[in-house]
Amino acid sequence: MGRTKGKHLESIRASMSENYVPPTLANPPMYKLDVILKEIQESRLAIEQRLGSITTELGTLKDDHRKLVDRVKRTETDITALVPGKKESESAIQQLQKQVEALQERIEDAEGRSRSNNICIIGLMEGMEGEMPHNTWRHGCGP
Length: 143
Hints:
The chain has helices at residues 2-15, 23-26, 30-116, 133-138. By secondary structure, the chain is mainly alpha-helical.
């Protein structure tokens, strides 16, 4: 009985070693291996297809990103070129505003002067000067 007990313990120790493979997995039936191999191949194809579509999408995203980067660079260049022109435009606008104000003052002054030339003399009748008003005043306010 002691010998069988020792052999049994020895077989247990052997089964606990790292190299131990259970008897059912050591020699599996061939049909199971074929099924497993087929599933692995199908999975591999599915993964390759998905990886291909991901690669295509990534390429498209890279192209779009590159286009956006180029567009932003062009926009920044355009904006940088506009800054000096903006300063010149602002100074030109200020000068034009001053000219407009001066012209408005001159217009108001001219309007006021033109109204002052329209003198109405009380006591003289309208149309009394005749056809040549300047001669009327030279000869003493009458025809």
